[in-house]
Design a protein that fits this description.
The protein is mainly alpha-helical and 73 residues long. The chain is 82% helix and 0% strand. The chain has three helices and no strands. The longest helix is centred in the C-terminal third of the chain and has 24 residues.
């Protein structure tokens, strides 16, 4: 749960910064799939799959932040 509120805030800023619809679908979809997979891996004690899924969600959020910076500049 620690990165979901950050994702929502970054996603809102990403959309408001004039991002492309395709980019929003890719980044938001990637984050959502990663979080669902993380939950599955967590419930079934699957390591390192759990850490990898968490990392993919984090990278997705970081890429959105990078695109926000590019959109603003």
């Amino acid at each position: 749960l620690e990165n979901i509120p950050l994702f929502f805030a970054v996603g809102l800023v990403y959309i408001l910064s004039g991002a492309s619809l395709t980019g929003a679908i890719v980044f938001c979809g990637l984050f959502t799939v990663a979080r669902v997979a993380h939950t599955f891996a967590y419930m079934n004690h699957l390591q390192p799959a759990r850490a990898i899924c968490f990392g993919i969600g984090g990278v997705s959020t970081l890429l959105m932040i990078f695109r926000i910076i590019l959109n603003i500049l």
